[in-house]
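hey so u asked for the seq, here:
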Amino acid sequence: MNQRRIPRVGIGGPVGSGKTMLIERIVPLLSEMGYRVAIISNDVVSKEDADRMRKNLATERGLVPADLVIGVATGGCPHTAVREDPSMNLSVVEELETKHPDLDLILIESGGDNITTTFSPALADYFIYIVDVSGGDKYPRKRGLGIENCDLLVVNKIDLAPYVGADLSVMERDARIVRGAKPTLFVNARTSEGVSAVVQQIVKNVLFDAKPKLAA
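ran it, structure tokens below
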């Protein structure tokens, strides 16, 4: 019998943009809906983000089994590990698919420090790119592969806009110009504002509104 392919969402963006916190807000909402999620977190040397998510989502809240939060130390540019040569991540994905065939979704976080992050289609079925308002409202018009090519652009830390002189309406306008009909969502991951809309996009466009596997 063929091994079932579990849907995968890649989440990329600059350092400090809020990738880890977005995941920490997404997973509880998916869990409430009955979906079982695994997380793969890429970084160059440390596994700090994976350790944090394991503590916050597994140890303290019991939303994800600890062994389903996996840190990958790429030893080099994390972009390469999710784009040019995703073999390291694919190996982890295949192990998850073998050991946990009842999973509904795998989230793959990629560290990075610029706007060129993209995911190989062999690794991710859907790509979320996250930026934060503190970088200024120029972000969308700076373009870059991540902003142009992602399935969903998330603009985080919208509460900081007044303090950094960023105009959210300008960001929304420029995102439409650069991305056309592809969606852009504005969120404050720290307070969960707007995060439910991100989850709705995942359920609709990745899970195709399917029931959780264990409930099917």
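The chain has one domain: 8-205. The mean pLDDT is 93.
lmk if thats what u needed
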